[in-house]
Design a protein that fits this description.
The protein contains 16 helices and eleven strands. The chain has 356 residues and is of the alpha/beta class. An eight-stranded parallel sheet has the order 1-9-8-6-5-4-3-2. Strands 7-11-10 form a three-stranded antiparallel sheet, with no helix packed on it. Helix 3 packs parallel to helix 4. Bound molecules: flavin mononucleotide.
Length: 356
């Protein structure tokens, strides 16, 4: 295939594996890149131990980058979450420094202003992709000099921005508002999503939830089974209002602090149902993830590891996108990517017959 994204990233198919904290490690990233997409190493990859040590966080990333290089010669990305000064920014700063030292080819920067890292990453020779959730953010990202943007709609797993714009409405507006390539994310899991996104004006797709249900993803089988069991109504977007983030006076990254008080999409399981029954629908991500007395963000990380890696869904929920309802199997990354590409062609041919 040939789009502005395959050309920019020098990959065969315009399919990007979205970063997912703890579960998108070097092995998954390399498998995606080997299969012709762009694999991404996410935050806290390759470990199940929560650390507050900044140096250790950087060195863990360094060994993941080196492992990925051993496993593939194709391009791959690293996710840098901008974060907030005084809380997680110090980890992000260290990870950016390590990424530059290791000569990472592509940066996917998310959850923060493009003003923070773009220039440094570009000067280091990286291709920079910025993750946005509104048209305003897309315009700002392009002005800051990024090479491409991801726009991710509210259907997506994880943070979906304050305004909860759907992928169907966000992608064409982002394509109209920018001159750089647009990668569409949020609810995309198959060839229909790929061809739909290209029709909306995107140059590629960004899939998180779908890549959890692959053989190479280290997420626990219970998590993969929960995705296979999901139906259309299995996820909800709930408030995310981290009090730590809200209290930080960070003018450089004000947008992120506001967005952090947006929403996050989670899979509704028995545990989350119990929390909602107890707390009411005003329940927040922090309420869903709290551990007796343990402060955020460590409690959130511990709960995430417990759920995603240990598979304890009895007392945890997980973040996942609405696309989970359209996941039926657990293929290898190569099988998944090849199926999406081969099933896209008949869709385009069917559309052509409509216009004959
Ligand atoms: C379990 C999970 C963890 C995530 N962690 C991150 C993260 O660490 N950094 C980030 O930028 N986005 C993160 N996201 C968002 C994804 O990168 C991506 O935007 C989203 O998964 C796309 O929607 P989809 O899940 O419908 O494919 C996460 C999403 C999920 C489902």
């Amino acid at each position: 295939m040939k789009t502005r994204i395959t050309e920019l990233l020098n990959i065969r198919y315009p399919i990007v594996e979205a970063p997912m904290a703890w579960i998108t490690d070097a092995r998954l990233a390399a498998a995606v890149s080997e299969a012709g997409g762009l694999g991404t190493i996410g935050p806290n990859a390759g470990t199940d131990k929560v650390t507050s040590d900044v140096h250790e966080t950087g060195e863990r990333l360094r060994s993941q980058i080196r492992l990925c290089r051993e496993l593939t010669q194709y391009p791959f990305a690293v996710n840098f979450v901008v974060g907030v000064v005084g809380w997680d920014r110090k980890y992000s700063d260290r990870c950016v420094a390590v990424g530059i030292e290791e000569g990472v080819p592509v940066a996917i920067v998310s959850q923060g202003s493009p003003a923070v890292y773009t220039q440094r990453l570009k000067e280091a020779g990286m291709t920079v992709i910025h993750v946005c959730s509104t048209v305003r953010h897309v315009i700002k990202a392009e002005a800051s000099g990024v090479d491409a943007v991801v726009v991710s709609g509210t259907e997506g797993g994880g943070h979906s921005g304050f305004d909860q714009i759907t992928t169907l409405c966000l992608v064409p507006q982002a394509a109209d508002a920018s001159t750089i390539p647009v990668i569409a994310g949020g609810g995309i899991v198959d060839a229909r999503g790929l061809t739909g996104a290209l029709s909306l004006g995107a140059d590629g797709i960004y899939m998180g939830t779908r890549f959890i249900a692959t053989r190479e993803c280290l997420a626990h089988d219970n998590v993969k089974q929960a995705l296979l069991d999901a139906v259309d109504t299995s996820t909800i977007a709930i408030r995310h209002g981290n009090p730590v983030a809200a209290g930080v006076n960070d003018t450089e990254n004000r947008g992120f602090v506001e967005e952090r008080r947006g929403s996050i999409r989670m899979l509704v399981n028995d545990y989350l149902r119990q929390v909602i029954a107890k707390e009411g629908m005003i329940t927040s991500f922090e309420q869903a993830m709290q551990t007796d007395g343990e402060p955020a963000p460590a409690s959130e990380s511990n709960r995430t590891v417990e759920a995603f890696i240990m598979g304890n869904l009895e007392r945890n929920s997980i973040t996942a996108g609405q696309g989970a309802a359209m996941i039926w199997d657990i293929p290898s990354c190569r099988e998944l990517i090849e199926t999406i590409v081969s099933e896209a062609r008949p869709i385009v041919e069917r559309l052509n017959t409509i216009f004959r």
